[in-house]
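Ticket #369: bound-state structure for alpha-D-galactopyranose.
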Amino acid sequence: MGWNSWATYALNINETLIRSMADAMVASGMKGAGYEYIIVDAGWKAKGRDAGGRLQADQDKFPSGMKALADYVHSQGLKFGLYTDAGSEDCVSNAPGSKNFEDKDASSFSEWGVDYVKEDWCNTGGMSAQEAYRKMSQAITATGRPMVFSMCEWGDNKPWAWAAPVANLWRTTGDSKDCWDCGRETMNKLGGYPRGWVLILDAQPPLAAYAGPGHWNDPDLLQIGHPGLTIEESRAQFSLWAILAAPLIATNDLRSMPPEIRAILANQEVIAVDQDSAGTEGTRVRISGNGEVWMRPLADGSRAVVLFNRSKSPLTVRLRWTDIGRKQTDELPLRDLWRHADIGVSKDGYFALVPAHGVVMIKIGLPAN
Ligand code: GLA
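RESOLUTION: The complex was predicted; output attached.
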């Protein structure tokens, strides 16, 4: 769980902004809710390496250097993430990528106190993704510093099939955008074409079995707090990302977070589902028109369930106990994870009126009978 600079600030980042975001992570209660990593995405590097071939920070934006920034983030009790690219150059900043400099760059990251490395896939013509990411993974391991390794090749090379020994998380699609389902026209192209989170969600069901503790599918950033999503859509993304056991990486300006946005990002009951110790990724178990049921089995045997309404008007979404591996005659206790209330014991399944583009999220306990 953490915060990433890209979706809100793109290349417009600097050390003052990142420090203030670390402060706000603590002051807003996000740290208390479990968010830990402050991840500086593209835009931090100088355009060239130093005389020793080492990456350096952009002197105008990060005059104190990355070690000082990492120290500051650590002083707030948080962890520090940094971006690079597997190819010859980063995607859009004309800064050097890590191709053929994996050992050198991993050592710099380790010396600076980096805890999380995100490696992108631009300017990699002719390269093998498996080889390139293995190289960086080995370079990171060789430093002896534990650093989470986040692969970002947009699912182009089916990383779920081979990356578990290489990385801790891998992006499954192109970038998320702050809209419901925009970007359909570019979604089948290779590379990081941005798209609404619902289109990203639709790519996840076949991938569920590949995730587990220490190696996760990454359906990209949370767009919550951006103008392109309504509150219902934001609650829906958060709930479904928890079902997907996804990394929860916020991108909004934590310094000026409206209470209703904070209430979504810091919902402890939904976060507990996301962080469940079994690490089983959930999936869709029923489709009925615009109504869907998504389910994630939890470590204690209970089930987290999302009733999801894709339509533009309220819809009753139904769940049968057999959808979640229970007997139809079971009497199961229910808790609403957005209302924070127990809602009694139900037999024969459950249904609820779900708001337009929204969800009802419940936890379903073990049979009482
Ligand atoms: C690609 C990645 C994004 C972000 C940008 C930065 O599009 O997929 O997550 O890192 O590059 O340039």
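RESOLUTION NOTES: The CA atoms of residues 83 and 177 lie 19 Å apart.
TICKET STATUS: resolved
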